Amino acid sequence: MDIRTLTPEIAVGPQIRVEDLPALAEAGFRAVICNRPDGEGPDQPNFSEIERSARALGLEAMYLPVLSGKVSDADGVAFGQALQRLPKPVLAYCRTGMRSCSMWALAVAGQQPMSLTVDRATQAGYDLSGLVRRIANGGKTPVEVAEASHDIVIIGSGAAGIATASSLLARDPQLDIAMIDPADVHYYQPGWTLVGAGVFDADTTARTMGSVLPRSVHWLKAAVAAFEPERNAVILDGCRVVRYKQLVVCPGLKLDWHGIEGLSETLGQNGVTSNYRFDLAPYTWRLVQDFKKGHAVFTQPPMPIKCAGAPQKAMYLSCDHWLRSQVLKDMQVDFFNAGAVLFGVADYVPALMAYVQRYQIGLNFGHTLTAVDGARKVATFSQALPDGRKEVVTTDFDFLHVVPPQKAPDFIRVSPLADAAGWVDVDPATLRHKKFDNLYALGDVTNTPNAKTAAAARKQAPVVAHNLLRGLHSGPGPVPSEARYDGYGSCPLTVERGKIVLAEFTYGGKLAPSFPSWLIDGTQPSSLAWLLKERILPPLYWEGMLKGREWLAHPEMVG
């Protein structure tokens, strides 16, 4: 039997036979639903045979037949009513399980996020792409689908999205651009490290979305439900359809706070904090100031994550404050890193190790945080052993800075845009999708092997803007050259208050300094680099990058 579980209460599968029923009863199923009309195939038992044998085994059986490819809205409602009435768990079957899965998806539409429904179906081996509009519309076939159409549609109005829109408009102010994002506030996230160290006030890192969007773009304040790239369409929540000629996808990534057991319940209390959240960065600074002795633990999850240096930045700045306050001697500081090295580019490790030794930080590699008990102040880790096995390790803490695991947004992971790991699948140089020629992606959501930083997005935006307009080129004259992204990323590692190790590198970890070594040697702590981070980069972000001014970001041209 090919049984595929959708939830603990419902599984689906292909045609069952009378001789399968004892095994189903033994597996714990309490009811079966037949969604296949009798006589559909020459090798198919009639439902009456299934029903008779099922009841003899104490199983309930229901006949809810649907013609192949003809699942109606009413069928979804009937399936939902059957699930409410029947004892659980239930096995629903048809010829392949697809009809049963479709009826379940329509039944739960509106009761859970569409991405969750599509994801569970995908994991079970069923493609629901043909149902996304109905699922997005609460399980009902849209009668009047509202449609909008724009030359360029950009998903996400974070740093990457706004920079791309502004770079496009700088090249052609007459472009018809729509930006889709439900958020009301735009954040300068690179500033949160300094908020957690008492250098910045949190309010300086936030502005209203309306104040930072380019004036000529159309802001569609909505969430994306699904993509139909073959039809050049995006489906929004509520089943509104937005069509495009060119699509740019840059919604960022998802911080999976629920990926660590107990973390969500204790964040912001019990000494547990994270600079990865706007409202918690000030709490980090309060904890740092109040902490006088005990065990301080800093964590880093498996890659990829947004700004791979940020977990260390919080640690170094906290230790610097404790050292200056003369309380570090009364503390034990530990860094639990899921990775195998302190930093991915070896040239910067010696300078970082000097600070690790200065602050007497214990390094624990191969440790992934799996659970937090805030009340008991205990953190649980999965430790990777050299022989490939894993073991559970626990440690107490008085101060815990957590970086959550991170992944692509749900609506991206279940879309046809994603690779096997869930990230948007693009060419690493052109940032064009590998399958859909009029689709580009940039920022944290792509599967490019660069560091996921705002600095990377600053370099990527002009590449996408140029190549997108190149794709729209239809006039006389030669086709413009193609722009290429070299993987540039930057991570200003705040090793102490007033000094930074300015890591800059491209694909493969090749160093890519923006300044001559006599001015800023990125492999060594620098006061000038701190000045850059504190005083220059914020206005460069707000008034440069978000305005389409491509200072030090002009793309390389090929061909």
From TrEMBL:
Molecular function as annotated in GO: transferase activity
Domain FAD/NAD(P)-binding: 150-274
Domain Beta-lactamase hydrolase-like protein phosphatase-like per the UniProt entry, residue ranges: 2-110
UniProt KW keywords: Transferase
NCBIfam families: TIGR01244 family sulfur transferase
Designated name of the protein: TIGR01244 family sulfur transferase
Organism encoding this protein: Curvibacter cyanobacteriorum
